[in-house]
Amino acid sequence: MNAIEVKNLTKNYKGFTLNNISFDLPSGCIMGLIGENGAGKSTTIRSILGMTKPDNGSISVLGQTVSAQLKEDIGVVLDEVGIPSSLNIKDINKIMKNMYKNWDEKVFFGYIDSFSLPTDKKFSDFSKGMKMKLGIAVALSHNAKLLILDEPTSGLDPLVRDEIIGILNDFTRDEDHSILISSHIVSDLEKLCDYIAFMHNGNLMLCEEKDALLEKYRFINLTEQQLSELDPAAIKGKKVGKFSVEAIADVEKIPSTFNSSPVTIEDLFVFMAKEEK
């Protein structure tokens, strides 16, 4: 079963369109949404959660349409955590015990201790990083099967980001657990994700297994004359310099006489986004 199925998702705003997006997240996997601010990542996530009504398309989550009952099985961390500013962690624990049937107080306070969060301090006095860590603790403490996270590592230092990546990896050791995560920190997603989806200007540029992407594309340096001799479909993106061209190309369409080198997911996205412009 797929944890998420999105088919032909379209949402129109003044000056922006989420344009006919389709992808599947297999159960037990982690998918990363990569894209610049305004690419459509948050609109996609809010549509999946039922917070935004699409103009067209269909969405299935854990085999069902999103409902209040289904949200028991979904842990959510959005870019704004959305906890009332006057509450402290002890207050939040009491509220969550009444909101979720499977709320696990022991697990929750285990994360609070691990993240070194103060239990008596008001949420309004938390830093952005502390707020995000609290949101992650809540999302992981009610036995969810699916986590949907919008920029969860934003504002966190590298050590804490690495700790969270480890926690999310542990979460998907259970084959029934899946994660959809967006981030502008592409290196985090490269370490974490099984699937990568590139979004740009409301379009889904590609959605594939991460390892397949890294095997499929390579860097090449060539002259403009050599570039003109290549199949244009082989080029995913390029930078034209004064003396040479740096390009990312399909490895199967690169002549054996060309020197090539590996790409990163960030390289691939940056080159593809520039090519699209």
From TrEMBL:
GO terms for molecular function: ATP binding; ATP hydrolysis activity. Residues 1-226 form the ABC transporter domain. PANTHER family: ABC TRANSPORTER ATP-BINDING COMPONENT, ABC TRANSPORTER ATP-BINDING PROTEIN ALBC-RELATED. This is ABC-2 type transport system ATP-binding protein. Keywords: ATP-binding, Nucleotide-binding, Transport. InterPro entries: AAA+_ATPase, ABC_transporter-like_ATP-bd, ABC_transporter-like_CS, ABC_Transporter_VariousFunc, P-loop_NTPase. It comes from Ruminococcus flavefaciens. SUPFAM superfamilies: P-loop containing nucleoside triphosphate hydrolases (SSF52540). It comes from the Bacteria. It holds the Pfam family ABC_tran.
